[in-house]
Amino acid sequence: MKNKKGWSLWGVLALLAGVAIYSACTGSIKVSGLELLKGLIDGENKQVEVIRDLRFPRIIVSMLVGAALAVSGVLLQAVMRSSLADAGVIGISSGAGFVSILIVSLFPNWFFWMPLISCIGGGLACLLVFSFAWKSGLHPIRILLVGIAVNATFSGLGQSFNYRGSYAVTSINQAVTSIFTMKNWGDVRIMLIYGSIGLLLALLVSPWCNLLALQDKSAKNAGLHVHRARFIISGIAVLLAAVATAVGGLIVFVGLLVPHIARLLVGSDHRILIPFSALGGALLILTADTIGRTVLAPAEIPASIIMAVIGGPFLIFMLRRSDRIHGH
């Protein structure tokens, strides 16, 4: 088992490094790996300078967004005890996007506070899902249905702002719904600050996530304050999902697909599951963005569309599996 976990970890690291190098070398400007390395060292290759300024931020942002969304899914699934919980599916991401649009349309000067504003929207959506889905516990199908309703509501409200036409609203709407084009080192800095805080906090609460897999009474006997732990873990999940939405756009199914595959490879111990899911999420979104950027070049397919095509059938599979587990 330890060998499987080790090989899985090194395998995903190798794949991530390989895809990152391929993504950096491929596109409208193509260079070899050696040319890229030489240009980065001596700084004399103009093509490499363009890649460094435009393509590197896109690669880094896509990896950080993927890691944040995947770990957010792991945390939400631990809190809700449901493998169907995902920030994109149950409305947390769309809630973050809508509140960002609403606040910045009213106060355009607050545009650069968008990550924190997104957290408010994500927290509101999470609270709504918890409130409406709770009925003597959290049933996976009820969470999904309530989440879809919350997601549709916030998505519709967000889309209604398309007709306002102001520059601030147009800009933020693109940030919420667009692809990774034109990401810069400022976006990298935002994701590094907020994303690193969220990922570090997720690692710190990983023992709590393990205890939440038990019945509440058993978790309390083990010394865990269950309600406080759920609240804190949910807050970390909302932070990660909201920042990813604010910087990378609305992408669904990452937190659904990656943790499921990660559990098959490394098990359910969150001390290992969380970092592995972060790497898996980074690999998934970077791969989706690279495919979308290159397969129909010079046109681009948003990573969100590729994830929707992949994630839709996977959600159906998960629903059928959930039905079998619960005897329906």
TrEMBL record:
GO CC annotation terms, alphabetical: plasma membrane
Ligase as UniProt keyword: no
Topology in the lipid bilayer: Multi-pass membrane protein
Gene Ontology biological-process annotations: siderophore-iron import into cell
CDD domains registered for this protein in UniProt: TM_ABC_iron-siderophores_like (cd06550)
Record family assignment: Belongs to the binding-protein-dependent transport system permease family. FecCD subfamily.
Spans through the membrane: 59-80, 87-107, 113-134, 192-213, 233-258, 270-289, 301-319
Functional summary from the UniProt entry: Part of the binding-protein-dependent transport system for heme-iron. Responsible for the translocation of the substrate across the membrane.
Species whose genome carries this gene: Paenibacillus phyllosphaerae
GO terms for MF: transmembrane transporter activity
Localisation: Cell membrane
Residues making up the signal peptide according to the UniProt record: none
Pfam families: FecCD (PF01032)
Protein name per Swiss-Prot or TrEMBL: Probable heme-iron transport system permease protein IsdF
Chief place of localization: membrane
PANTHER family: FERRIC ENTEROBACTIN TRANSPORT SYSTEM PERMEASE PROTEIN, HEME-IRON TRANSPORT SYSTEM PERMEASE PROTEIN ISDF-RELATED
Keywords assigned by UniProt, alphabetized: Cell membrane, Iron, Membrane, Transmembrane, Transmembrane helix, Transport
Keyword Calcium: no
Coiled-coil region list: none
